[in-house]
Amino acid sequence: MGRNDAQAALCCCLAVVVSLLSSVMVPAAMAAGDARHGETIFLRYCQGCHGPDGRGGGKGFMPHVGPLARKGYIETMPDEYLAAVIAEGGLAVGKSGYMPSWKTTLTEQDIADVIAFIRTFVAE
Ligand code: HEC
Question: Is residue 40 domain-shared with residue 22, that is, in the same domain?
Answer without folding.
Answer: no
